[in-house]
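Cont'd.
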Amino acid sequence: MHVNSESFIQDSTVAVQNKTLQTRLRVLTGFTVKRNLLFAELPDGEALRDRAREIKEETIGNLDSYLTQLEENVVRLGGTVHWARTGNEARAIVLELARKNNVQRVVKAKSMVTEEIELNEALEQAGIEAVETDLGEYIVQLAHEKPSHILAPAVHKSKGDISELFADKLGVANLKEAEEMTVVARKRLREKFLTADMGVTGANFGVAETGTIVLVENEGNIRLSTSLPRIHVALMGIEKLVPSLDDLAVFLKILARSASGQKMSSYVSLITGARRAGEADGAGEFHLIILDNGRTRILADEEMRESLYCLRCGACLNVCPVYQKIGGHAYGSVYSGPIGSIITPAFAGLEKSKDLPFASTLCGACREICPVRIDIPRILLKLRSDWAEGKHDNAGPPLLEKVAIKLWAFAMRHRIIYNLVFRMPAFLQGPLLEDGKLKRLPFTLGGWTQNRDFPALARRSFRSMWSDEK
Amino acid sequence: MTAKNAREEILEGIGRALHGERKAGPLRGEPVPSAPSDLDQLVSEIKKDCEQRRGELIEQFQSELTRVGGRFHRATTAEAAFQYIEEVASVRQAKRIIAWETKVIDDIDLSGKLEEKGIEVLTETADQEFIPAAAASDIGVSGVDFALADTGTLVLLARKGQARSISLLPPVHIAVVKPEQLLSGLSDLFPLLRREAEAEGRDLSSAITFITGPSRTADIELTLVVGVHGPQQLHVVLLDC
């Protein structure tokens, strides 16, 4: 997976000062408010979350068997199953299908996994038009940007930005309201749907017992992508399975509530194979691409495994105090926010994204809201610890930090040295004090005081006061 | 890079990651259809329960549908249902309507009466290419297979006579629901879908669509806009006769 997370410190430093961006992001709290109301009125809401997690544990724990079962059913229904170890292989499969079927135009549903493998770029390089059809994705594609939120890809853009974009790219000027812009996009995209040869979607769930792919949406673009073009290609990460329809019911009850604060999304499509004889519409060919792309590696690490339970609902982004300030782009990955900070290092390597696990206050809001209760703070701490212990190739803290920590550890174990080393600064801090506080620490310690003051060190230690009292 | 290699490598990788040398655990998911006697009993219990609570379910369905922006109309005769559809058509100045070919819709007799008024009524077997015809229609009229009271959801199964585009391409969708199609929610639905699958010969319908209100988006500043790619209006006619 391609990431740009190495410049996270610089990018987030710029973003955190962007008040306009923060105003845009503030609307996301509306999702959280509605989500909380809906869960409060759902009598068995908490039990459903527990059940959902159990189902994920069971499915992921026997993933090979469930994947084989799904494959058998899809094939029995006349669909084709393809397996891709990497994003490259998945792209090659889609391109080959497009070539074989003489596909000129592809309509795409919003799908994190196609973002992950950068499918649009590959299609365009092959001379095939790939049109994003979710309104937010369409806006982001027109602007040549990346989505900044799992659920609301264009949340970083204002109405004014989008109006300018539509004037520039679509030649429709002076659009003021969201309704007008939506009408323009509907017309443009309707033409694309009616002339597309292939529809590409992700998959929210794969139901092993029936060979069904489940797609959840509000706009209707996924229904169009699966109903009109002659070929439907669904891309699915290996982790997206549920065993049975009854299990699916559990997830459908919590997904829309968590994602957008709705009891049910406007549309849920259960696609079981291609169109059957006698039907008037629906894709005549159905292809399912099952993608690994690093997921097996995550599966093998028991401490990381639960990050594969993620439903991509986006709820953790909306409640994260860090995401709320910096938005999605600074993370440099299609997966942003708290969940992105654990799965980006897992997919792309900690050495390429070492700052992400540190981009958290560990407040635990993400764990509280996660519909399948992924313990994101625990995994963040694990990744921090992996980093500090240099468990990854070419990854680890700088030499100075390692030496400093070693010295600290040594001093902590030797009382006399500890007293000497840690009493001294209390006497030497004089020249650095401003208004009784340390506002600028020298040398490499300056990082501490860049954004906050350090309190003055007490002249007398607690330990000495304690012994006097006695 | 053959497909077979990738498949085996992924499955082996998963096996190693999960079980080491151990064999995979047994599958919990029941194949379709599950034990017929249990399913029969469950389905009849669900049906009985929904029948007893029908009044309550209708009320709940109406309130949930309205909450998500759908419009509810109760008709006690096929004639009254027709009048409602005609009224919507006249407000929308509809020139063309496309409809399912099912018994419920036939009973309302759209084509006979609307064509007198100069409104063309098409179905999927009309002598025209279907998708362009549906895209050029002003109103789509469908039945449903089930309706879920606790979320105001319509459940439509794709099959001959029940084309997907009819509830999708026209800007207005009118769905005709019979009271006996009302279920309390998702938990009732799936056993009944299994039963449908049995009737169809082991498999679910190629496309089962849940519709909850009109098409919507909030992608621009999280402002709710209704009618982005799917219908802008959803009318439900409860045909209670």
